[in-house]
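Retry 2 of 3 after timeout on previous attempt. Resubmitting C-alpha cells to design endpoint.
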C-alpha cells in the first residue's frame, strides 16, 4: 500500500469517526445535557458518575481514531486539507479538557448545580459547532 492509498483510508476513517461524534454531540447537546436539570438532586452524583463512565466508552475510541488519523496524515503530508480538520480536532480537545471536563468534575464532586449545568450546555456548543463544521468540511472536500 502506498502513501496515497494510506492517506485515502486514514482520511475516510477520521471522517467516519467524526460523523459518529457529530451525531453523538448533537444528542448530548440537545437532549442529554439539558436533561441533567431533571435528575433528582439526591441521585445526581450517582447519575453523573454513571453517565461519565458509560459515555467514555462511546466517545473515546472515535475521538482517538480521529486524532490519530489526522495527526498521521499531517505527518505524512502537511496539506491544508489535513491541517484544517486537525485544527478543529485540536480545538475540540482543548475545549473538552479545559472547559467541559472541569465542569463535569465539579458536578461529580459537588452535585447538581443549575448554574454549572447551564454552563455545560452553553460551553458545549463549542464542540458541537467545531465537530459539525469539521465534518462538513471533510465531506465537501471529498
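Retry 2 succeeded. Sequence:
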Amino acid at each position: 500500500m502506498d502513501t496515497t492509498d494510506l492517506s485515502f483510508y486514514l482520511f475516510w476513517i477520521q471522517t467516519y469517526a467524526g460523523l459518529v461524534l457529530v451525531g453523538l454531540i448533537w444528542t448530548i447537546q440537545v437532549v442529554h445535557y439539558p436533561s441533567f436539570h431533571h435528575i433528582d438532586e439526591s441521585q445526581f452524583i450517582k447519575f453523573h458518575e454513571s453517565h461519565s463512565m458509560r459515555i467514555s466508552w462511546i466517545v473515546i475510541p472515535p475521538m482517538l481514531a480521529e486524532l490519530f488519523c489526522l495527526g498521521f496524515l499531517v505527518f505524512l503530508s502537511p496539506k491544508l486539507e489535513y491541517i484544517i480538520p486537525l485544527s478543529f480536532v485540536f480545538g475540540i480537545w482543548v475545549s473538552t479538557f479545559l472547559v467541559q471536563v472541569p465542569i463535569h468534575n465539579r458536578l461529580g464532586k459537588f452535585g447538581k448545580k443549575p448554574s454549572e449545568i447551564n454552563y455545560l450546555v452553553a460551553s458545549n456548543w463549542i464542540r458541537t459547532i467545531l465537530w459539525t463544521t469539521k465534518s462538513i468540511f471533510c465531506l465537501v472536500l471529498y
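Attempt log closed. The mean pLDDT is 96.
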